[in-house]
Design a protein that fits this description.
alpha/beta, about 170 residues, 5 helices, single chain, about 30% helix, CBS-domain, three-stranded mixed beta sheet
């Protein structure tokens, strides 16, 4: 089966989901070669996502991630504000490797704060362009107050594009 350039790019991006970008900043859309469809707002295709509280221990976070069969999870504070992401591998290396007790070690020190996110009221085209520019396949979705709503990924955008039979964004390569 022959893949066009866009499908090939999507496949590579979906394998690169958690690549860090700017420190917990909303990435600005680059309008050169921007996505050329208006399929609604991000909130139309958000996938809900469970999160971990910043108040728990490393062991509790690892147990929760194990139970959900995931390698990383967003972290929120008491209000629900997105603080960053926890990585199971990073916590295992840092806590176990340094001899800290995972039952008492707080997750706060292990939160990766260099995560991309978009706002729920942004257009899908803007979110897609941000992901393409940052070379990532998934971003957290937040309200304007940075409260976590869920995630959006490149596959959901592709599905929306197929459903509406819309053109892919113009490549800048």
């Amino acid at each position: 089966m022959h893949e066009d350039g866009f499908t090939s790019k999507l496949r590579r991006l979906s394998l690169n989901r958690r690549r860090p970008c700017k420190p917990m900043e909303q990435i600005k859309a680059n309008h050169v070669g921007r996505a050329n469809f208006k399929a609604g707002t991000v909130k139309d295709i958000i996938k809900p996502e469970k999160s971990i509280s910043n108040q728990v221990s490393v062991k509790t976070a690892l147990d929760e991630m194990q139970a959900r069969a995931i390698d990383s999870s967003p972290v929120i504070d008491q209000r629900g504000e997105l603080l960053g992401t926890l990585s199971k591998n990073k916590m295992n290396r840092n806590v176990g490797g340094l001899g800290h007790d995972p039952k008492t070690e707080p997750v706060e020190a292990h939160i990766e704060k260099n995560n991309a996110y978009c706002f729920e009221d942004q257009t899908i085209a803007e979110a897609e362009q941000m992901m393409l520019n940052a070379k990532i396949g998934e971003v957290h979705v937040v309200t304007r107050e940075k409260l976590l709503v869920g995630t959006i990924n490149i596959e959901a955008i592709q599905k929306e594009r197929s459903r509406k039979r819309l053109e892919p964004p113009k490549s800048r390569a």
